[in-house]
Structures are given as structure tokens and as C-alpha cells.
Amino acid sequence: MIDLRVLTCNLYNGNADPEALADVLASTTPDVVAAQELAPNAATVLGNALPHGRLDPALDSTGTGLALRYPGTVESFPMAQRDGMTTVLDPAAWPSLHSPLEIVTVHLANPLDRPLRQTRRIRRSQVASIVGHVARMTQPLIVLGDLNATPVWPVYRQLTRVMRDGVHDTGAVQRTWGPRWWWPRLLRIDHVLVRGGVRVLRAETISLRGADHSALLVDVAVM
């Protein structure tokens, strides 16, 4: 039984077509949308579709947001370079949930950004922040977003030591990034990691006109 439908999408700093995003939201009806590289044009679309949560758009690739169908308090998730966001969904406001569920969205530094030595330090710090948070949590947890890491990268391996790759569990693994929105996807760098009784039942990637990432949609059950 599906308890929650979640969408994560990197919106390419305003290049994703707002009308295409609106169409995706209307056709998939997610309960939670985690957005990275959120610009004002996409923030307007998200706010119209999902009235709760928090959207912090920007035009320098740091924009982020958690858009929610039902009420929830969204706070910053402190990390090096750019913060993520976190919310705990309360069953009192979320009728499909039987226990609290935390959702954290992150956007890790691009490993090719120069200077490379500084970027490596930033990524190590970002991963340490996530791993430390996971170690302190006792409730069900989802960490999702653009990790800028394929499954062969150390970042992915470090994170999947403390969480499960929910998309991999479904057997529906697909690549999510390509250099042009109309090109075939080359790398799987957008992920949904789960812990503590969270299970991904279904996963789907969705092309989004103008964006270099495909959106990643998952249906989730919380035990």
C-alpha cells in the first residue's frame, strides 16, 4: 500500500520549462516535491501546486525547496557550501502516515568544480553531515536529491553503508542526468535513500523539458 508519493528534481537553475513542470505535477500528483537549483519561475509553479512547505529560490544554483501537500514545518539542514532542507511529516496532518517520517533534501557539490581539492573537502563535509544526522535518528527517514555521485563513487558507497538505495530495491534503476535535456541520460546521480522501515515500491524517471536532470518519482510505504 502506498503511503506517500515523492518527486525529486534538479531544475537546472531556471532552465527547466515551468509549463513542463506544471504538467508533470498535474499528471503525477506527488505529495512531496524536493527541488534543487530552484529558480523563481519554478518556485511559482510549485507553490501553486503544493501549498505547504518552504521554497527558497535563487539564480545561482543554490535554490532549494520542499513543497508539501499537507502542513509541515521545513527547516534548514546545515551543510558545507549550501544547506539542504528537512521536514518531519506528522501523521496528525498526513492521513496516510501511521508514524512520523523525516524527509531531507540535499544537493551535493559537483566533484568537477574547481579547485578540486577544495571541492573534495566540501563533499567530505557534506557526507559527514548526512551520516552524522542518520546516526542520531530513530524514526523513518528519506534522504533524496542530486548527490552528484553515481553508484561507483565513494560518496554513494559511504551513504549506502548507513541507508538503502530505495530505487535500487525496486529493480527499476535508470540514469537521470545528461548534458542536454533532449539527450539520452548518461549517469545516475539523483537518488532516494531510505532508512528505518521505509520502502520504495515503485520508481520512475520523467523527462523535464529544459532540465539536464530527469525528475525521479517514487511511491513509498512506511512500516
Name some characteristics of this structure.
six-stranded mixed β-sheet; Deoxyribonuclease I, Chain A; alpha+beta; 223 residues; globular
Description:
The strands form 2 sheets. Strands 3-4-2-1-12-11 form a 6-stranded mixed beta sheet. A 6-stranded mixed beta sheet has the order 5-6-7-8-10-9. It has helices at residues 18-28, 40-49, 116-136, 154-159, 166-170, and strands at residues 4-10, 32-36, 52-56, 64-68, 74-77, 84-89, 101-107, 141-146, 164-165, 190-195, 198-206, 215-222. The chain has 5 helices and 12 strands. With 223 residues, the chain is α+β, with helices and mostly antiparallel strands. The protein has one domain (4-222): Endonuclease/exonuclease/phosphatase (Deoxyribonuclease I, Chain A, 4-Layer Sandwich). Helix content is 24%, strand content 31%.
Summarize the helices and strands and which ones pair or pack.
Blueprint: E1 4-10, H1 18-28, E2 32-36, H2 40-49, E3 52-56, E4 64-68, E5 74-77, E6 84-89, E7 101-107, H3 116-136, E8 141-146, H4 154-159, E9 164-165, H5 166-170, E10 190-195, E11 198-206, E12 215-222
Parallel strand pairs: 1-2, 7-8
Antiparallel strand pairs: 1-12, 2-4, 3-4, 5-6, 6-7, 8-10, 9-10, 11-12
Helix pairs in contact: 1-2
Give a summary of the structure in a few sentences.
The chain has 223 residues and is α+β, with helices and mostly antiparallel strands.
